[in-house]
Fold this protein.
Amino acid sequence: MPATRPRWRRPAVAAVTALVTAVGMLAGPPASASGKAGRPGPGPVVTRAALDPALVAGRGAKVAFLEQEAENAVTNGEVIGPDRTAYTLPSEASGRRAVKLRPGQHVEFTLPAPANAITVRYSIPDAPGGGGITAPLDVAANGRRLSTMTLTSQYAWLYNQYPFTNDPDADLLHPDWWITECSCVPAETTPYPSISKPFRPSHFYDEQRLLLGRTYRAGDRIRLTTPAGSNAAWTVIDLLDSELVGPPRVRQRAANVLAFGADPTGRRDAAPAIERAIAFAKRNRLPVYLPPGTYQVNRHIIVDDVTIEGAGNWHTVVKGREVALPTPAPDGSVHTGVGFYGRDAADGGSRNVHLANFAIVGDVRERIDTDQVNGIGGAFSDSTFDGLHIRHTKVGIWLDGPMRNVRITNNIVVDQIADALNFHTGVTDSLVANNFVRNTGDDGLAMWSEATANARNTFDRNTVQSPVLANGIAIYGGTDNTVSNNLIADPVREGSAIQVGSRFGAQPFTGRLRIANNTTARAGTYELNWNIGLGAIWFYALDRSIDARIEVTGDAYLDNTYNAIMLVSEWGVKDLYSISNVHFRDVRVDGTGTSVVSARTAGSASFRNVDARNVGAVGVNNCGSFHFTPAGSEFSLTDLGGNDGGWLADWQLPNTITCNDRPPVIPPPPPTPW
């Protein structure tokens, strides 16, 4: 969602049949009868987004690492989950399961391919008063100790209402907002309701990378152990990614930052030296080279008409502290931090900027929406960002247009307080492809057409996993944009895999929006403000009607928590706005907790070759705009043929009212090849 998130309106959803919603749904079969150990199996279990890779072939990013879920490894710890209830450790885990280790316990992975580096996704407790702790995790290979990682929860554990706090003992940040917990507005309720603390804990996980020092073979064993003397009462291991990292890249003909005084140990501020190298490189038409090392940068480096390359994002790290400003900046920032920024669009923006092959590691631990503490920010045209690893910033890449022709490819963006990437205002003719995103605190990838429409952009072949809040991919208005070949899994709260939203003051949808050949898994979260479940893909008319042509073709919606497809308008504007001109073709739905289609708006959609199986409730939950007229629902469905699985029956057409406001949830079986 946008970095400035408006206050929620109190919903007044019609309760046609008010049933208790089951949200603790299964992500798959339990690991064992006792829940104490993962399935050892004959060999390593490699997954993508906790799925059999065959189920997602051709979708998502091609990455250099192989994913192994801890629940499939050998452990003497406890397998936790599955659970899709927000504010629980399993709900934010990949695949909704993980392994909890007490001191002295371990989880052991068998390498599926040669590797010399690992990434561990984990969670450890917060400090009692907030702010995080550190704790050790021993790493061994084939029974021989290699290293001790120092885990931290300093970048995790947010609490309370948006924009959240690090204080677990905080009172409600917005007592004048409606909350599900008491079905009330606390400030207007007498007696004042009792709200348990910590209130709505979330954002539990972090990840850490480790070079192993040598290459281990396929079949070698990597064991992660919580030492007996650990100060962490428990350590949750979600997954391990293993990778064969190549040697550092060397750029001979370049402005080497070491020649300008940059300290590769990270002890001294390297920003002035990097800026001197940039100035020299621009005068002499050279790229800037960042050799292996860690470079301390605690503010923005302004870039324009320059190429900056590292030795690879495992080898070159640009890392900085978050620094409080003595007075707020004109843009409202109260902090600065490490980041590469283009010039403001109002000043003409930057052009011909190329950043590649290094890591950006920030120090952002709280959400302050006015802060410019993003990994990459500003306005760029005719520019590229490739092979970067961005972590612990507010937003990995937040671009404020107007701007055009940006290519963002082959990056990894993880552990963000807010979005991974946002095209904000007038971004055109640009591409976001083959990027891997995990553990964002808001939308994974977003196009937000505030003030000026985004146009002719493409999000293609990206993987987005475990956005803690909001959506995997969100499109807020715009013209002729495309979302294709992406893999989106495990959204946790108040969002879904794909959202098409007329909201946040976005410009209208015009032209054609193309959504094609995407796969979603375990999507469709519980919308706590409405007290209903969402769809894996959901269309939301809040600010205006959605009536541009929207084509959804070739998508696969797997293991949907609630609905596969939802179309909804806000209760207060349901008689003003509608959703129409939406066309579904060649779509497969494998498992829904409730329905294939849930319509809670006026409008229409057509369906051709939409096949569904393992549907939990009625195929179509058609409430329209809740007037229940004798003429039927205000939402009409057109059957264009080939819709197999019995989910779309003649008696439901074109607009039979089949409204069950909160249908019971029936967990579907795990998805299988079609």
Notes: Residues 271-284 form the longest helix (14 residues). Residues 248 and 316 are 9 Å apart (CA to CA).
